[in-house]
Design brief:
Number of helices: 23
Shape: globular
CATH topology of the largest domain: BirA Bifunctional Protein, domain 2
Number of strands: 25
Largest sheet: 9 strands, mixed
Radius of gyration: 28 Å
Length: 716
């Protein structure tokens, strides 16, 4: 087995191997995904390539190779063992509709056994066992057998083990086959047992042949399903549908006015064809899909008539004949996502640099590699403790090394992330503060994160951003550590006072968060160490109450309408600012906001206007918003007195009451006479730059009351 000492040597061999197979080398993308708003960080090499996996042509062709920097925090509790990391480098080769399973598996096998000289006898594989979404992967099994992997070394595993993606709630995905290395000095057993910890995963071939899609609309039969002629509206079903952040379309053969009159205040769409109202005719659903610009896989339908179900299914709409509300709920719960074949079959291969380097050098853990040794030595010098001497100290050193390394790369990223209490900034803050806490456990009394960072940056000379922004990285670590240290000792003292009972209440853990900057995960760890429980449900309720209060005034009148602070919600929230100003520019300077509601799926914006907007006006508003998005303008936040905010041109919601001190969000535009495009009193959250919104699209304009119009829109 070839010994490769440095990450640079391993990367070089990998890149050269695949370049010899006519792959083009692409650089690592940002840690902040550009094409996937469903995740905070780039967790795999696929994120920068999502458009190309879905069919867009890549400028360098169909065969690519990369070394992608990644952040994963899903298994942060596992960090501290020999192999898990939050930050890691992923070696990957890609086929965008070119080769598939046979070629991918053969190249994987050749690189491992020929280039790296890993004995075949030390390898085992797993393949997808199959389920309702996709069949058993017999093709991969056959290929492995032809390469000399015995059937006893092939394990068939379910989706949780052998399926990759999507990284978020929707996107490209598919079955995978994984390669395992026998890490023990003892002879590898003939039969592969995936639960044996000596079998370490070193390679993953993902066959992306599906797209997981989110259902956008739920189609509901009106008569006898939602509305009974004798009993009236089925309120139980109506309430069930109301809470879903989906378009609810009531399909009916009756006069739509009759149905609307029975819906009370439920904001459901009603679709009816008075000229040809027969739902048993497939043309009915074809016209419905066309009207609402839906693909067949973006809708689900339930009905009490089998002939209507047949008609919907002919349009490839996922449909169900039901008997009761319970069946409907189960159908909705199980079918809010669909798996559809991709236009092209893709291959995504992954191999972790850190783990592979440890294996090639016969090391017991990743932290003994040349990547981590300078970091570990610095921690040893600071703590006066020895790595590997005892389990608690070794675990603490691993956590510090991993978390500070991850923080260095996040801080050094081109998107400029700082520690904060939302989004990527929250993850960054959690990593830094968790590292600081484990430093205290090791007995490090001085501020140390910046010193460890200085040992990390030279390890990665190929990432120029770390060299360029090293002063910023160091200063941010120093500032965050200083902030946390000011309250850490007091916070732990308070925790010890609280932790005298068998349970820590949600209010107590929220106090630690609010007053001492303890992330809930931090408090959970402290509680587990003392063997006591934490009321997480009560904490979440308390946190939600705090958010609600933050989004209101002292009188509780100002509603921002935000259900969360996800990436997509921030985009949509910021888009309302641009929409508000665009309406004033296109329609009238007298327009005022009359309310809003924002979910991760769409925005709803109400405003005063006496009539329906023309198609040309809607188009102009949409174009104006997208013009500002493309200008890539910064969003700035300031806290000022209410009177000063209003006198300086800040917009406020009509009828809302505000506290004396307010937050003002300004879209800075130096091309405007006053230096800004939009200025609003608001509570957030927002994107930092309008370019992050991508594209704005109005999907509906309607009346909600006399003199009040409503726009619904999405970010694409």
């Amino acid at each position: 087995m070839m010994q490769i000492k440095t990450r640079q040597d391993l990367i070089k061999k990998y890149i050269e191997f695949f370049k010899s197979k006519r792959h083009h080398h692409i650089p690592s993308a940002s840690l902040i995904p550009e094409n996937d708003p469903t995740v905070l960080f780039t967790t795999a090499g696929m994120h920068p390539l999502v458009p190309f996996l879905l069919g867009q042509k890549h400028p360098l062709g169909k065969k690519l190779v990369s070394v992608q920097k990644c952040i994963r925090t899903d298994d942060i509790d596992e960090v501290g063992d020999p192999f898990h990391h939050t930050f890691f480098e992923m070696l990957g080769n890609w086929s965008l509709g070119d080769y598939f399973k046979k070629e991918a598996i053969n190249m994987s096998f050749d690189f491992l056994t020929k280039t790296l000289e890993i004995p075949k006898e030390k390898l085992a594989v797993s393949v997808f066992a199959g389920d309702a979404d996709a069949p058993k992967d017999e093709e991969s099994t056959s290929i492995w057998l032809s390469l000399g992997i015995p059937k006893e070394r092939i394990a068939f595993l379910p989706k949780k083990n052998n399926w990759w993606g999507p990284a978020g709630s929707a996107g490209p995905c598919g079955p995978d086959t994984e390669i395992f290395f026998w890490s023990s000095s003892k002879k590898a057993p003939e039969k592969f047992d995936p639960d044996n910890e000596n079998w370490v995963e070193i390679w993953n071939d993902v066959f992306m042949e599906y797209e997981k899609t989110r259902v956008k609309a739920i189609l509901v039969d009106a008569i006898n399903t939602l509305i009974d002629k004798e009993k009236g509206l089925n309120k139980e079903l109506a309430e069930l549908l109301k809470v879903l952040e989906k378009k609810i379309i009531i399909v009916t053969n009756a006069n739509p006015k009759e149905i609307i009159s029975k819906l009370n205040n439920y904001n459901f769409e009603v679709f009816s064809l008075l000229k040809n109202p027969d739902k048993s005719n497939p043309k009915y659903f074809k016209q419905l899909l066309k009207k609402y610009e839906l693909s067949s896989h973006e809708a689900i339908y339930f009905d009490h008539k089998e002939e209507n179900i047949k008609s919907a299914k002919e349009n490839k709409i996922n449909s169900m004949f039901y008997k009761n509300n319970k069946q409907i709920k189960e159908f909705i719960d199980n079918n809010l996502h669909n798996y559809i074949p991709l236009q092209q079959k893709n291959v995504d291969t992954g191999m972790g640099v850190e783990r592979t380097l440890a294996i090639l050098n016969g090391l017991e853990d990743n932290y003994q590699t040349s990547i981590f040794q300078p970091i570990i030595k610095e921690i040893e010098a600071l703590s006066q403790k020895k790595y590997g001497k005892n389990k608690p100290d070794t675990r603490a050193m691993r956590i510090i090394a991993d978390h500070v390394r991850a923080a260095v790369f996040i801080l050094g990223d081109e998107r400029t992330i700082k520690p904060s209490n939302i989004g990527q900034g929250y993850v960054l803050r959690r990593l830094i503060r968790r590292a600081i806490r484990y430093g205290k456990i090791l007995g490090i009394k001085e501020n140390f994160t910046s010193k460890i960072a200085k040992s990390i940056i030279p390890i990665y000379p190929d990432y120029q951003e770390l060299q360029r922004d090293h002063k910023f990285i160091i200063s941010q670590l120093e500032e965050e550590e200083q902030r946390f240290n000011q309250t850490l000792e007091k916070g732990i003292k308070k925790f010890n006072e609280i932790a005298t009972d068998k349970i820590i209440t949600g209010k107590e853990s929220f106090l630690l968060f609010q007053s001492y900057g303890f992330p809930i995960e931090f408090t959970q760890e402290l509680a587990e160490e003392k063997g006591i429980k934490l009321d997480l449900e009560e904490y979440n309720a308390e946190f939600q109450r705090h958010q609600d209060l933050s989004r209101t005034t002292s009188a509780g009148m100002f509603r921002s309408g935000l259900a969360d602070d996800s990436e997509n919600t921030r985009k949509l929230h910021t888009a309302t600012h641009l929409l508000n100003e665009a309406l004033r520019k296109v329609l009238s300077p007298d327009i005022k906001q009359r309310g809003s509601n924002i979910t991760p799926e769409r925005l709803r914006f109400d405003f005063n206007f006496p009539r329906k907007l023309t198609e040309d006006e809607i188009k102009k508003v949409e174009e104006e918003v997208n013009r500002i998005i493309k200008k890539a303008l910064l969003m700035e936040r300031t806290e000022v007195l209410l009177n000063n905010a209003l006198s300086n041109g800040a917009q406020a919601e009509f009828g809302a009451k505000y506290p004396e001190l307010v937050s003002v969000y300004t879209v800075v535009d130096k091309d405007e006479k006053n230096g800004w495009y939009s200025k609003e009193i608001c509570t957030g959250p927002h994107v930092s730059n309008t370019k992050e919104i991508n594209k704005f699209k109005i999907i509906k304009e309607e009346a909600v009351a006399a003199g009040v119009r409503r726009i619904k829109a999405v970010c694409e």
